Request: fold
Amino acid sequence: MGTGMASRLTGQGFTVTTYNRSPRPGMTIAKTPREAASGADVIISMLADDDAARAVWLGKDGALSGARPGAVLIESSTVSPDWIRELSEAAHKHGCELLDAPVTGSKGAAVAGELTFLVGGSDAALATARPVLTTMSKEINHIGPSGSGALMKLINNFVCGVQAVALAEAVAIIERSGLDREKAVGVLTSGAPGSPLVKLISGRMLSRDFTPNFLMKLMAKDLRYAQKLGNIEVVTAALRTFETAIKAGYGDKDFSSVVETLRNSGKEKA
Reply:
């Protein structure tokens, strides 16, 4: 995702310095996060989780140490509100402002500049960063103050995760029951349950094409963060199903592959 975002910015004329990315035409490759951030007006991270983000921003030769006072930091990773609070405090001590701005959309959307940003932070910081975000997006949704974007992204992703597990359970039951699979799944996708996500991943489940679009292990990570928001029983149940799939070897597959362990568990019960 980060590579696509950087490519989009470069293609639209922005000067981009990257850290830990494959070389791309028009990009300068830095040796450390500090070097990448040095002199930049806007600094963006797109990483896997809290630990990776903390290491890049606050670790040895971290990006924040290279940021100039007045720079706007953008945390586009899907991370916890607790980490956003920690990074925001560190940014303010350094004379910078932070936007938490995770995205919805695919890798293709990143390259095409069609992401949706869910932004938390001040109006002033967003005004500074808007030209950069606009270049990468079809929509910038300012959710509210700092932490709002991160919170909204976790809510968005746990709803997606729960839907994926529910659909996987339905597909497994349909297949065991002897119903015409294509017709039965068509009823789901064309009817009330047919959310954009259900329509998208049902095809992957039926074709068993689990080429990674969104990794299973990252969905499980997001659900673990969502668990900290409160006692959400459906999240706990969905996470348990994803963790079973990860133990079965599907962690680096698309999260729609969660259907495979449900198919297998049905065979075992039979």
